Amino acid sequence: MIKVCLVDDQTLVRQGVRSLLELAEEIEVVGEAVDGRSACELIPELQPDVVLLDMRMPEMSGLDVLDHLGKAGKLPPTIILTTFDDDTLVLAGIKAGAKGYLLKDVSLDELVGAVRTVAEGGTLVRPAVTERLLKGLDGIRTEFSSLDRPDPLTDRETEILRLMAGGYSNKEIANSLGVAEGTVKNHVSNILSKLGVRDRTRAVLKAFELGIV
Fold first, then answer.
1. Regarding the domain delimited by 137-210, which CATH topology (the fold level of the hierarchy) does it fall under?
2. Are 56 and 82 within 8 A, CB to CB?
3. Which of 27, 40, 158, 213 has its CA 20 to 30 A from that of 16?
């Protein structure tokens, strides 16, 4: 079972998302937080596999939650769930460690697929949002910014990077290529090192920026 925690200050939204997720046999909603402050207490206690996080909440925003849990080393794989198609928030959320985002009008299949993908180590940086994300790359560059001229990738590393860009997890990539999951993990580590980035999300963004995928 994939354990999910919902964080949203709107009761109807939480109830709606919970109702959708309860239709999926492999997903269990283990908790709900009504604001950012309670989320920071509840998430480390529940240790969910995936967090669905609203960004605009009173007192502590979703971004505050990402920052707080990230600095404490207690941030599970997190999907930003928002009604606002707001590039600034999405970029800030990715910078703070979110694995991607979905709008709240998402369908059941998209929501379940996203939860499953993130739980398995994938990301939700899809080509559909990449153009907007790339426009804001300067805004997410920090002391962990990627190298301007990364080392060239091997053919296999490029192949894996393209699959990463599709949101596939290490396990799915391994199955697709017919190799061990540990082999894929090693390739991913090499990709991050060569691109000079610290996580898969930034690797995908850098790849699109360089035209690798």
1. Arc Repressor Mutant, subunit A (1.10.10)
2. yes
3. 40
